[in-house]
Specification:
It contains six helices and two strands; from the N terminus they run ββαααααα.
Length: about 120
């Protein structure tokens, strides 16, 4: 893979040029606006049930939603219920080590979504 990079100090973004197979380019082109977030979620390296929530967000972005749809996006009721359960256990001091890791990973996902929504509010 060849990669050329140009850094934009104002927006803290780097422009990258890659060579990918034609078939992959066809799949990437429609979701180009959301590709940085999809890549970021894919690189986190989730080790818990938070993987399902990350996959849910990636699946949503892969459908190439409108910026307005992303701005109002929320994870599924099931994912929200799981997060609420973990927060309740955390408040009670009853989280296992695995649950704490999952809560940390869910917080990473939330941060990525918040940053995306902030970017959308700024750009669109």
């Amino acid at each position: 893979m060849n990669c050329g990079c140009l850094e934009n100090k104002v927006n803290h973004m780097v422009q990258m040029t890659m060579q990918v197979p034609d078939k992959l380019a066809e799949r990437i082109r429609p979701i180009g606006n959301w590709l940085p977030t999809i890549i970021e979620l894919g690189l986190v390296g989730f080790k818990t049930l938070a993987t399902a929530t990350a996959a849910e967000v990636i699946e949503f972005l892969a459908k190439n939603p409108l910026p307005q749809q992303v701005s109002t996006y929320h994870v599924s009721d099931q994912a929200q219920a799981r997060l609420q359960r973990l927060l309740t256990l955390n408040q009670a001091g009853m989280l296992s080590e695995t649950e704490q890791l999952e809560l940390d990973e869910l917080e990473q996902i939330e941060h990525i979504i918040i940053m995306l929504k902030t970017q959308i509010a700024h750009d669109w």
